[in-house]
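Record format v2
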Amino acid sequence: MGKKFEFLAKSLFFACALTSVFSLFLIILYIFSNGVPAIFKIGVFKFLFGTVWEPDIMEFGILPFIVTTIISTIVAFFIGSRIGKWCAIYLSFFCPRKSYKIIKTIVELLSGVPSIIYGFFGLVIVTPFIRENFGGPGKSLLAVIIILSVMILPTIINLSETAIKAVPKSYYEGALALGCNKTEAVFNVVVPAARSGINSAYILGIGRAVGETTAVILVAGNNPNMPTSLLSPVKTLTTGIGMEMSYAADLAREALFSIGVILFIIIIFLNISLIFINRKED
Amino acid sequence: MRNFKQCLNYFKVYFGIVFTLICFFSIIGYIFIKGAKSLTPEFLFSLNASEGASLVPMFATTIIVVILTLLISVPIGIGSAIYLNEYARPNSIYVKIIRIAIETLSGIPSIIYGLFGFLFFVLKLGWDWSIISGVFTLSIMILPIIISSSEEALKTVPEGYREGSFALGAGKFETIIRVVLPSAISGILASVILSVGRIVGEVAALTLTAGTLVGFPSSLFESSSTLAVYMYTIVLQGMEMEKAYATGIVLMLVVLLLNIIANCIASKLKRD
C-alpha cells in the first residue's frame, strides 16, 4: 500500500463528494436554461403578475399560483408550527417515560408516511367533510391548508424536540430554583433558549409545505384562477407543474419550467435563511 | 393570573400531542378499515398479466427501483461522507462548497428533481420515460440524506480506533475500510433503510421521469409504475377506489416494516 495508492483512494472519495456539487450544478443549469427564456418570451411582468393562466390563448400569468402557495404555506405554517412546537415540548418535558417510546415511534412513523397517503386521506375524508359542512366543491384552499398543516407536523416535532433537548439541563433547574413553576420554566426559559434550533425546524417545515406536490394535487381542485375564498378550488406552483407536464407542449411546457425556476428561487431563499440561522447558532 | 397561564400552557402541550395522535390514528385507521376488504390474496399475489389486476408488477418495479437507486447512491454517499469526515480539513474552501451543495440539494422539493430528470435524463440523454431515468433522478434526490446520516455515523466512531489502527501500521485507506466503516456500518444501515421509505413513497419525481405505465417492465428503458405511482394514477382517475385503499394499506405496511427494521438496528447499536 504505497503513497500512490493512498492518493488514489483519497481522490476517489473526493470525486464522490464532488458528485453533489456536480448534480446541483446540472440541476440549476437545466432548470434555468429551460425556464428563463420563456419568462422573457412571455414578459417578466406579465408572467409574475398576470392573473390569467390559459395556455390555449397563450396567457401565462402565475400570480394566482404564487398567491395560493403563499397563503396556504403561511396559514399551514401558522397552525402546524404551533401544534408541532407544543408537541415537541410535551415529548421533552411532560411525557411519562413509559409512553415516551410509543409516542416517539408514532411521530417517526408519521414522518415516514408517503405524501400520496396524506393526499388520499385528504381526498376521501377532508374534501367531502368540507363540501358537506361548508359548501363549495370540497377540493379547496382550505383542504390544502389542512393537509399541509398535518404534513409539516412530524418535521417540526422531531427537529424542535432535538433543539429543546439540546438546551442544558441547568437552565431548567436554574429557573425552578428561582421559583418558576414547571410550565414557566419550560415556556419562558428552555424554549426561548432553543429558539434558533426551533427556527430551523420551522424553515424546513415551510420548505416542505412550499414543495409538496402529490398530496396537494389531490385536494386542491386545480383551478388556475385567483382564490376568492377559503372554499375556492385552487392551483399552487407545484401542482401547476405536476398536473400539466404530461400534456403541455411548446411555450406552455416552457412556462412550466419557468414556474420551476420561481419555485427554485423560493427554495434557495429559504435555504440561505437556514444557513444564516445555523451560523448564528454557532 | 399565574394559575391561568399555567393551565393554558398545560392545555397547549396536551392539545398538541392529542391532535398529533388523532391525525395518525385516523389516517391509519381509516385506510386500514376501508381497505381491508379489497386486500384479497388475488389482488396481492396473482400473476395475472392484465392491467391493474394485481399488484405484483408494481411490487417488481418498486423493488427494481429501490435496489438500483441504492446501488448508485449508497456507495457515492458513503464515499462523500468518508471524504468529509476522514480526509478533508474542515475549513477548506472545497468542504464549504460541498456542504452548501449538499444542504441545497436536501432542500429541493421532489417536483424540481422530477423536472430536472425530465429535462436531462428523459429529453437530453434520450432515455425517454423509463425506469432508468427514474432511478438516476431518485439517486440524486436521496444522496444528501445518505451523506448526512453516514457522516453522523462516522462521527460516532471514537478517535482511538483510528489511532490504534495507525499505531499498528495500517495506512489511512486500510484504517477506513477495516476499522472505521465496520464500526459505523449499523448507523449507516439504519439511515439507508429509512431512505428506502422515501423511494417507495415517491410520486412527483417519478411520474415526470419514469412515467405511469402499468405492468411488468421488460427492460430498464421502459416506463413502469411503482406502488405509490400506481396508487396516484388510480386516485387521480377517481375510479376503482377500492384498489387505491388496498395499495394504500400495502404502502403503509412497507413503511411500518422499514421503520421497525431501522429501529431494531438502531437499538442494537445502542446496546453495543
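Chain B has one domain: 39-271.
Residues 2-35 of chain B form the longest helix (34 residues).
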